[in-house]
Fold each of these.
Amino acid sequence: MNFQVTVLKILVSYPDGFAIMADLKRDMAILATSGRDWAERTKRLAARVPALDIFSQGLVERLNGGWRITEKGRAVLELMEARPAEIGTQNAAPGAEPSASAPLASPLLAARRSGRSRRLQRRRAARERGRAKAC
């Protein structure tokens, strides 16, 4: 499992990109024990940015007992997660005309990301309600 990619993935899943250390540790433990799929996925993503260093590159900042992903961190993570076809259209040769589907790529990615974000927010809210009931 690639620690730095995992941190980026966890932080981006939080509504404001900020998580306290206890939440980060819990989420890391869950992902670390989730099986080989997660480890292989993070290795694939890390291979796209070999010199990844989330703190020295300003991708994550330390705040108030936790960490927050920066806009630059979100952009790097999006680059790592882009499919090869999407990367090809973004790096088209100069002078080549953009394809008709190129403008749709980012709104589609944004819609997919926002749906995932809403699901994660609902899960966190349910988890918090469960904790409140247990007390």
Amino acid sequence: MTAHKVRTRFAPSPTGFIHLGNIRSALYPWAFARANGGDFILRIEDTDVERSTQASVDVILEGMAWLQLTPDEGPFYQMQRMDRYKEVLAQLQAAGHVYPCYMSVEELDALRERQMANKEKPRYDGTWRPAPGKVLPPVPEGVKPVLRFKTPQDGVVAWDDKCKGRIEFQNSELDDLVIARPDGTPTYNFCVCVDDIDMGITHVIRGDDHVNNTPRQIHIFEALGAQVPVFAHLPTVLNEQGEKMSKRNGAKAVTQYRDEGYLPDAMVNYLARLGWSHGDDEIFSRAQFLEWFNLDHLGRSAGQFDEAKLRWVNAQHLKALDDTQLATLVTPFVERAGVPAAQLDARLPRICGLFKDRCETLVDLANWVRLFYVESIERNAEDFAKHVTPAVEPVLAAFAAAIEQVEWSKEAIAAAIKDVLKAQGVKMPQLAMPVRVLTLGTAHTPSVDAVLELLGREKICARLKTR
């Protein structure tokens, strides 16, 4: 921890739809800022103009809004900060940290081929790096140079990573980084440093695919006389096949989980456990997560996504929700299932309370809820054949007659069922199972008296007659 106020950031590139592996890299810096009374900044790194899309930006913003990972500042867009980058570039050049390099792409390719043939690490050889007494090649006519950063040639660059421990690189292994292209536009590693300095970032919490960028960035921070932030490089998130999670490997956009009926707090709970732990706690609230979160319990090994586990976590959160709150959350999903919100009524919270233990997502719950509001239903053919048989027709007829006369309460319906069973000389399953199939389409429902009371006399009578 530094003496300064904690300031973290999430800096995605909008070059593809953000997936769960990406969004976990937003969750931890958000949580660390919240846990320490700090600020969380959102920065969109959109300098790859050819691949960046507004649709990808929208998914980032929608996904973070859904998960309630609200930034305190931003979004900032790198493409809107080009003048600032060029200003700092000029400062570095004036201080002698940067030099023009006129080596062509063809020359670089030839150099790399020679190095690989000699079993050497392919790297820029410093041809245009100025040094006392060194004579540089003549400047070719009509060629715009790249600008390279003068990487220190001796010693080591090192940091104590909050996730991976001590990491060191020999400076002699690092070549001189291109920090501006021939057209003057600055490159990624340089822009990141300027942004982190200007935004006062104290902790950089990001994926471990950035480890090799970090020594470069530390050199740039130091050349600019800036405080080097604390780094924590998070292990990769793997998909269910054990490969790095990516859109190419079938990863879904974060917003798809929203549309599939997952709860934001359940998703936060699940993602938190994909690289961090608090003892053996599996299910916890957002408030508990923020109370417990620190960088000392980050895992060092890759987390593997498991959709069955995610569904289980979501089911636990769904089950724990207040019925009224759940009714509000499920309403848009019920609408999508074909029931206008205007048709929903005071029964909705009670229906949610009755069925939530059987559901893993809001979509599951909506599919149950709609059965109480539509006129006709589909019935499970296997259940129908098994339970709605000629043998039970007299029992169903007696039940239909009883249900038309009964006082409308769960207790009175339960008493009527008992009376029918006694009069017909049958056991509960011989009545309850066919009634379930005929009224809700499946033999597997909660308590039949509770279901019937909520369904209402009119719908029950109509569905019992419909074969």
Amino acid sequence: MTDAQETAADSSLRTTGGAPPDEGVKGVSVDGTPTPLLEPRDGIPPVVADQDALAQVIAAFAAGTGPVAVDAERASGYRYGQRAYLVQMRREGAGTALIDPVACPDLSGLGDALADTEWVLHAATQDLPCLREIGMIPSLIFDTELAGRLAGFPRVGLGAMVEGVLGYVLEKGHSAVDWSTRPLPEPWLRYAALDVELLVDLRDALEKELDRQGKLDWARQEFDAIASAPPAPPRKDPWRRTSGMHKVRRRRQMAVVRELWTARDRIAQRRDVSPGKVLSDGAIVEAALSLPSTVHALTALPGFGHRMGRRQLDQWQAAVERAKALPEAELPQPGQAVTGPPPPRSWADRDPAAAARLSAARAAVSELAERLNMPQENLITPDTVRRVCWEPPAPVSVETVSAALAAHGARAWQIEQVAPALAAALA
């Protein structure tokens, strides 16, 4: 790389808040224009779809060196659930592998071979659940999206990070396609391979930037917390998250939402399609608000048009009738049981002193986050701040606030940074 290229690359990186990566991975041209990354350096590998090929990949990656880049593609919006339909990996000495978890549903052997290896993922919390389902459970991770947040990058999507830090442009045209498609088209496979092409290079550059800012230990604590977190429990009353639910006020109408949502979910699971392809959230809410008395009345509602067959209409009307027939005692309550503080909008009326504490605490956290150049929610979760403000420790001190933060799951670095500011605000 020439001196002019070096200068252009470093200047571009400084504007985004990142440190320049190692020589050899920069893609910024002489005029500062990022370079499109069009092909994997080793070409597009064949998709691993049988046990013999999988055994070869396991051996190759076990013999590789350094961290392993890992990504997974799901079929959100097309299929039921969030299972993985393609797993991409890259490691020094092993190259890139594209694995079909439909043909090879048990990847625990691969996970075991890499158990002591650092896994590099982007937005790890999105991919870890579907990787866990196929036996891939890391013990050590580096999350490049979270690293970007802690380092103060304004845009932390993978494409933005690769461009801002390494100077390459990733093609993102296939991010929302139906990855359950078989066979997978070559352009999709190219896109998938490129997603892990520079992930370890990005990790190395972000590690240096975090170290420069004195935040590397903070990031490691966050990564450890993600890797050690247990699987999330099933959501209680998931039907309450129906889009447009805020329009539904009466308990009988809420029962219609629940019945239609449950029927839709059962059908979607049986057909292995996204629930939204069976019946839209908007249609569910319209039926709940209207309480149609006949199939004819139901057909007139948005979302239940002429394209829907009589059998489908009958099953939706039957769900409505079941809700209408429920006794009062079996109707859902207006809101979910609250386990923490009430909504902040009600604090001024219910507890003016708590509202004042929350206002002061939010201001203190905002100022501290700005000074540390990171999002407030990564410095400390808003829920933790609310809980401490609603029931502050007594007496208020840095020590008692620290203990309260720890009880709510805050990491050591968060407690060290936040406790003094919160204690002052609470006092």
